[in-house]
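Action item from last week, closing it out:
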Amino acid sequence: MSSIAFIGLGNMGAPMALNLVKAGHQVVVYDLVAEAVGKLTEAGARAASSADAAVEGAEIVITMLPASKHVEGLYLERDLLGKIKTGALVIDCSTIAPDASRKVAAAALARGLEMVDAPVSGGTGGAVAGTLTFIVGGTSAALERARPVLEKMGKNIFHAGESGAGQVAKICNNMLLGILMAGTSEALALGVSNGLDPKVLSDIIAKSSGRNWATELYNPWPGVMEHAPASKGYAGGFGVDLMLKDLGLAAESALVSRASIPLGELARNLYSLHSNGGSGKLDFSSIVNLYASDRE
């Protein structure tokens, strides 16, 4: 089994690291939040006092961080790459700007390290169940090195292309997800305002041409799906501010490539409005509250 350093134990990172521990890997963990580290050490991981200490001797380094600035800050500004042993594999599962991924990957290569960007899809439920989808950018050889580890955390692994390609594909996916969730919320609110039961309407849509991931697995209306964040006060899950970040990445990418994303920009404005209203830390499905602020 591999010796793995895992840095970043948030809502996604913690269950991912836990699945590696359960698979029998020697996992050293680090996070700024001591409580998150404590839960992993109780499960069998070993705690590190710093990111530098975590990567010492590691064969594989995995990071799951919030944004580009955190990834570049850790690997480049703090020079974590210089602390990782030559020949090791670096897997960054954060969702960040493609150019940031390419920049860090080039620096890793110059240090004698292989690196892949491997952002994920599947939400916290997929992270816990080990059924995530990994969208990988990097060389085929690096992906094959990463595959045995990724398979312990996910069910689907796609090779999108060279460094940064995983991020491009993830950004496209999350832009569509944001649009779908906003549209689903709007449709449900319209139905309820006209006297329909939200569960009945959701069941109808799920078996009709409007069906999508939100209606089938992540309904935004409270009480429709017991295990969805909407039925838990929109706690946990994928935060509004994280969705807003990803929609911002889509906007940046569109500017660079001169692509038109009118629906993506509309969704970004909606989530920005929602975040500015004090909902930034709630699950992104809480966008339904923009349309149904007067519901009971």
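Closing note: The domain at 3-162 is CATH 3.40.50.720 (Rossmann fold).
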